[in-house]
UniProtKB/TrEMBL annotation:
The chain crosses the membrane at residues 6-27, 102-121, 127-145, 272-292, 304-323. Pfam families: T2SSF (PF00482). It comes from Hirschia baltica (strain ATCC 49814 / DSM 5838 / IFAM 1418). This is Type II secretion system protein. The keyword Membrane applies. Keywords: Cell membrane, Membrane, Transmembrane, Transmembrane helix. InterPro entries: T2SS_GspF_dom, T2SS_GspF_sf. Residues 66-87 are annotated as: Disordered.
């Protein structure tokens, strides 16, 4: 064999040996270990498996939270279409009155007859008598009920943040949610204590917490109560730190209250101007009556004057309503 061929053969054998040794150290000797590692990654074992399990739990929790929010949105849309809370029975319950709707309608009819009788004694025209009777039977009683609802809701809003703080402190100390609600029902003044007492009574009768809070929202249709029901509903379905969630809600409600007070202070000048503008026609009428009684008495003695007074009162009422709506800001 030629010497050159021998050199080439030795070089080839050396190359094959080097490749074999490299394959043994890099691939062949660790094939089983790599396959084992691949299986561990695939099944989520070891440290990587714990990470994958954590990611899966986070995704599952997020999906559960999204499902809960979707359910609550559907329930809220259904509640907006519901007619509950709009009947006279619900209005009386919102005002905290215990009279029956039939008695309310009887009192409304009596009020209408009394107002119509007063206008008849004053010698007004039949049209004015009918309008006064209609306003006294339907407008005046509903206005009184609306004032009662507004006063009760305002008082409830002032107490509600303190009630949520009671729940937060109770949950942090280890008390269950029902016991915290019972503390509010027994220790808080009306109307907060009254409403939570109804919630506790409904729960003791077998109603769920979520349904009981929904009924409380029908009796007290405030955004604060709606927020509270949503937080409790999410916590009941998906779990989580209830004290932290309610603590954040309490801060939000207090911020809303501070913003409302700030808006009230900033709009006080506009309210004073609206009151002056609204009282100006009446003040001018009184001054004209004392200075020239014969000039303005026609408004009270002539049918055309009665019509002008009705038109003027309607325009004044519309103007005051528009100014009130312009100054109103929902927070």
């Amino acid at each position: 064999m030629d010497q050159t061929m021998i050199v080439y053969l030795i070089a080839g054998l050396a190359f094959v040996s080097v490749v074999g040794v490299g394959f043994a150290f890099t691939g062949g000797g660790t094939t089983k270990a790599q396959q084992k590692r691949f299986k561990q990654v695939a099944v989520g074992a070891g440290s990587g498996g714990k990470k994958n399990s954590s990611v899966d739990a986070t995704l599952m929790r997020r999906k559960q939270m999204q499902d809960s929010m979707k359910t609550l949105r559907e329930r809220e849309n259904k509640r907006r279409k519901d007619t509950r809370g709009r009947t006279i029975k619900d209005k009386l319950a919102q005002a905290g009155w215990t009279i029956e709707p039939a008695m309310f309608w009887v009192l409304s009819a009596v009020t209408g007859v009394v107002v119509a009788g007063i206008t008849f004694v004053l010698g007004q025209t039949p049209l004015i008598i009918a309008g006064a009777g209609f306003a006294g039977a339907l407008g005046l009683p509903r206005w009184v009920v609306g004032m009662g609802i507004s006063a009760r809701q305002k008082k409830f809003t002032q107490q509600f943040s303190d009630g949520i703080d009671v729940i937060v402190r109770g949950v942090k100390s280890g008390l269950p949610l029902i016991e915290c609600l019972r503390i509010i029902a027994s220790e808080s003044p009306a109307p907060l204590g009254t409403e939570f007492k109804r919630v506790i009574d409904a729960i003791q009768m077998g109603t769920t917490v979520e349904k009981s809070l929904s009924n409380m929202y029908n009796r007290m249709p405030l955004p604060e109560v709606n927020f509270f029901g949503i937080v409790i509903g999410i916590q009941q379905q998906s779990g989580g730190n209830l004290s932290e969630a309610l603590g954040n809600l309490s801060e939000v409600l207090r911020s809303r209250k501070m913003l409302a007070e700030k808006v009230k202070a900033l709009s006080s000048e506009a309210k004073a101007s609206a009151m002056i503008i609204g009282a100006l026609p009446i003040a001018v009428m009184i001054l004209v009556y004392f200075s020239s009684p014969d000039y303005i008495t026609l408004l009270f003695t002539h049918p055309t004057g009665h019509f002008m007074l009705m038109v003027g009162a309607g325009l004044m009422g519309a103007g005051i309503f528009v100014m009130k709506q312009m100054m109103k800001l929902d927070v």
